[in-house]
Amino acid sequence: MSFNVGDSVQPVIGGQRMRVVSVEGDTVECQWTNLDQEQTRTFNSSELALYKEDDDFGVC
Q1: Torsion, CA 42, CA 48, CA 49, CA 55, rounded to 10
Q2: Separation of alpha carbons 34 and 52, rounded Å
Q3: Is pTM, for the whole model, over 0.90?
Q4: Rounded to whole angstroms, how far apart are CA atoms 43 and 51?
Q5: How far apart are CA 56 and CA 5, in angstroms?
Q6: Would you write out the chain's pLDDT as a tens digit for each of its 60 residues?
Q7: Sign of CA dihedral 18, 23, 24, 25
Q8: Phi then psi for 45, rounded to 5 degrees?
Q9: How far is 1 from 43, CA to CA, in rounded Å?
Q10: How far is Cα 30 from Cα 22, in angstroms, rounded to an integer?
Q11: Within 13 A of 39's CA, how many CA atoms are on the CB side?
């Protein structure tokens, strides 16, 4: 799957909502806030899925 800067994503195994900040080929850099601290991590695109909310909660 391909992602674009600004997309909301989460790991395919479930987890926190993250924002895509850069994409280079299959490498996707994501950013999120954890305890008021910005966190950044690089993922392979196969590790991510578009964020989907079920009712009031994301798929975790």
Answers
A1: -80
A2: 19
A3: no
A4: 15
A5: 24
A6: 899 999 999 999 988 999 999 999 999 999 999 899 999 999 999 999 999 876 555 555
A7: positive
A8: -55, -25
A9: 13
A10: 7
A11: 10
- Per-residue confidence (pLDDT) for residue 1, from 0 to 100: 80
Q: What share of the chain is helix, strand, coil (3-state, %, to 5)?
A: 5, 55, 40
Q: What are 57's strand-pairing partners?
A: 54
Measured CA to CA, the distance from residue 42 to residue 40 in angstroms comes to 7
Residue 41 is which amino acid? R
Per domain, the residue ranges of the chain are 8-50
CA–CA separation, 5 and 21 (whole Å): 5
How many residues appear in the chain? Answer: 60
pLDDT value of residue 52: 84
